[in-house]
Every structure is written in structure tokens, then in C-alpha cells.
Amino acid sequence: MRQINQVFSIRLVLFFGIILITMCLEMYRSTCPDSDWKTFAESILYTTSGLYEFLSCYCFPVQFLINQADKVAEIVYQTKWYKSKHKAQSVSLMILLGQRGIKIAAGGVVNIDFITGLNTVKTMVSYCMFLKSIDIDSEESQTKPFL
């Protein structure tokens, strides 16, 4: 796992940052009142395809790997290794290693799993709403006369 984290670490942090910012801006662009149906459709299509790529290519496979690794200790224990004639040291070592769990991190900062994917979507929507509220506030201040 250390080698996987080292190889993909920087690339994943950059990818997460780029995806977060661009999809947030696309969501905002689709909700602008002056956008036409073509701009709306492009923004929704881009946001949907970006989310699909992000979740299906990164978050779901890593979560599946984590779930399978978490089952190792349980499966090894259920094999009735204690009835075996071989030494049980290697089996007990497998049980101990299976309880450690697997974590794939982007940049050593963000763990990649399904929870991170959902938090990323939540953050994108929050940023989009923040931009929308700033836009509404700026429109209101432009329409009020200065006294």
C-alpha cells in the first residue's frame, strides 16, 4: 500500500482539487439566471460525467478494496486454522495484519474512500451555493440606490 500511496499521492491531490473547483464552477454556471438551455445542458453534462468518473473510478474501487481487506482476518479465522497440523504462526500473523486496515491517501492528506467522495460532493454543492449567495448579494447592492 505504501507504494500505491507514493505513486498516486500527488496526482490524486491535484485531481481532487481540479475536479472540486471545476465542477463547482460548472454547477454555478448552470444556475445563473442568464444561462440558456445549451449552457445549462453542457454544465449538467460536465458535472454529471465528472462525478461519475470521480466516484466510479476512484472512490468505489478503493472502498471495495478496503472492505475486502477488512474481511481478511474474519475469513482466515473461520478456516479453522487451529485444527491444522501446521504451525499457526503465519495464520495468526495474517489475522493481525488483516486487522490493520488499508488506507489509500491522496497527498498523505485525504483518505480516498466512499465517505471522501460524498464529502467532496457536499463541498461542491456548498461552494456553489456560496457563489450563488455572493452573486445575489452583489445584484441586490447594485439595484439599491446609494444614499
TrEMBL record:
Ranges that cross the membrane: 12-28
GO MF terms, alphabetically ordered: odorant binding; olfactory receptor activity
Keyword match Membrane: yes
Keyword match Membrane: yes
UniProt GO cellular component terms: plasma membrane
Domain of life: Eukaryota
InterPro entries on file: 7tm6_olfct_rcpt
Localization per record: Cell membrane
Membrane topology category: Multi-pass membrane protein
Keywords, ordered alphabetically: Cell membrane, Membrane, Olfaction, Receptor, Sensory transduction, Transducer, Transmembrane, Transmembrane helix
GO terms of biological process kind: signal transduction
Chief site of localization: membrane
PANTHER family: ODORANT RECEPTOR (PTHR21137), ODORANT RECEPTOR 19A-RELATED (PTHR21137:SF35)
Protein name as catalogued: Odorant receptor
Organism field: Callosobruchus maculatus (Southern cowpea weevil)
